[in-house]
Structure formats: C-alpha cells, structure tokens
Amino acid sequence: MQVSTLSMFLDYKCNFECGHCSVGSSPETEYELDDRYIDKALSEADSLESLQLVVFTGGEVTLHFDKLLDAISQASECGYRTRIVTNAWWAHDIERARETIDRLVDAGLDEINTSYDDFHTDYAPPDNIVNFVEASLESDIEQTSVAMIIGDTNPRYDAEAMVKLLERRLGTHPDAYSDELTVLEDTVSPLGRGAQIDVSELTARNDVDSGCSDVISTISVHPDGTVKACCGHAQWYVPDLTLGSLDEQSLPDIVQRSQENLLYWLVHNVGPQQLLERIGVEGDYSGICHACNDLLGEHREKLLEYIRTNKQQLVHEDLFLSETMQRDAQSLVDHEQQVLERLDRISQAADAD
C-alpha cells in the first residue's frame, strides 16, 4: 500500500453541471487550488519513492489553462508521468482539439482522460469526444481514456455506442489503438448531486466485492490544502478519508501516518463490501465508492467496534496472510525493510489500543 499516484483538484468549478457529479461541481462552484499547495506537494513528493503519476483534475482543469500548463510542466520536470481529467468542452472542432492537446503535450502531458454518457448530453455533443480522441491519437499522448458512466438500465450512450462513433471517424475499430486508447464503463455512484439516483437495478462495472486498490496508493490534494486517502466519490462525505492538511504537516508525514492506520489497510486488502458483510450489513452497491461511503458513514461505529474487538486477528489474517499481500510479493521483496517497519508499527498500535 504505497503511494503511486498524486491527484490534485485545481478547482471544484466546472462549466458543466452534470446530474451525477459527486464533487457537486458547477459554474458557480468556485474553489481554486492555491499555487503554494501545488509547489509544496510536488517539492515534498520527492520523498515518496513509489510515486509515479501526478493527475490534475477538478471540476474542469482546463478553465485555468495557463495554471494547468505550469503545473504539468512542474510535475514533468520532477520526473513524474502526468495526466489530466477533462470534459473536453474545448474539442468542439477538430482544429481546436489538436491545438489544445498540442499545447498540453508541449507542457509535458503523458495521459488524458475524459468521460461522456447520458449525464453529459445537455452540455456537449458526442462529437466533442470524437474530436478529442482523434486529436489525442494523432499527438504524442501515450494513453487516452474515455469513461462512460452508466446510470440507467437502457443508456443511450454506453461503451458500445461510443465505439461505433469512434469507428466511424477513425475508419477502423478502436481496438486497433488498444495500446493507446481505452473506452470503459463504470456505474454511477449515488453521491453528491447524484445522491437521488436509483441504482438498485444497475450492475456494478467494477469488482465491488474486492479490496480497494486506490486507497492510499492514490492520494489527492484539495483546494483547502487537505490531503485525502483516495480520489474516489466518497472522499467528500466521510471524514475518515481525510488524512491531514498541508497547512499543518508535510506530505510525507501525512502519508506515513496513513500507512500506519489499520482501517486503510482493511479497506485496501479486504474491501468495503466484505467489511460490511462482516459486521452484518447486506446491501447492493453500484461500486466500491458507494460501499465505502456506507461503511465509513452510516456504519462507521459498528466497523470501529469490530476492529477494536478483532484487531490482532485482523492484523494477522488480513494483512500478513492476505491474498493481496501475496500478490504484492515482489514489491515486498523490493521494499522489504520499509514495509516490515510499517507493519510492525501497525501491530504495535493495535497492541497499544
């Protein structure tokens, strides 16, 4: 459970106001990340030897285009891969799409992600995404991803529909670009503006019954300087996913403290839904974030009591002997002393409690 990705929310503001947005972004939601937090996070990230990727997201990151270019350049010069997440509003014609992506690549961008689905149709046509993909594939961008968020049993725009649109433009099936392009589906999480969406008839597109690979391995920096334990939908709604503040601690100190927290290890190795089942809670969840929000929200006290009662067994069986730990065997060999020291601190903390 080492940090591999650092995600920065440049602003919660977005020029769209999609009905499923867990951030609650809109044209009126202005909360910009101060440059000092970007500088502090990137300068201190040098101590995180496992960090590989820096992601800039929002809100809509390209609304602060010059700031975004500077941040990409800064992260790239530090030796990290870079990615942005954008709604591609600017790709309304192919030439504008090419120009924008070329400037991003010149700044040092390696990867670019977008999404399009029934929630986005009020704000942009699908042609934006087709322009976005065509321009990206023509450029030096190494990885392009299009996510389709499914919120209905009969969606108009799903992965199949997007593949057909792309095939028509590209003149070949997108599989021909499988090393560079990913089109995927995910199920909506009923959080934030999407809290009222009925997901009872929807099928989870990810493995909701497994551990969360993102917790602590992906951390996020927010406009108020807080650092959160993931970049998922639940992070705004459950206090346990807030690790600390850059105003009060260094990024390495925040990360180290999180890696000594048994709760995060359990979410990572066991997974929210499995933990819910262990404490006697049954439910149908649209994804891991949905289950995590339920676990660390409504059922938090029940979970903490379960951990207090079974902490030694949990450390032994769910950490030391877990399948996740076995899958990460090579990483353990490569970082043996560092990992053993962290696990020893977790065990000592459990004894102290």
Describe the protein:
- The chain is 40% helix and 14% strand.
- The chain contains 13 helices and 9 strands.
- The longest helix is centred in the last third of the chain and has 21 residues, at 300-320.
- The chain is globular and about 60 Å long.
- The mean pLDDT is 91.
- This is Radical SAM/SPASM domain-containing protein.
- Residues 1-220 form the Radical SAM core domain.
- InterPro entries: 4Fe4S-binding_SPASM_dom, Aldolase_TIM, Radical_SAM_PqqE_MftC-like, rSAM, rSAM_sf.
- Pfam families: Radical_SAM, SPASM.
What features would you highlight for this structure?
13 helices, 9-stranded mixed β-sheet, about 15% strand, alpha/beta, 4Fe4S-binding_SPASM_dom, about 350 residues
Percent in strands: 5-15%
Q: What is the succession of H and E elements?
A: EHEHEHEHEHEEEEHHHHHHHH
Arithmetic mean pLDDT: 91
Q: What is the radius of gyration?
A: 21 Å
Structural class: alpha/beta
Query: How many strands, which pairing sense, and closed or not: the largest β-sheet?
Result: 9 strands, mixed
Shape: globular
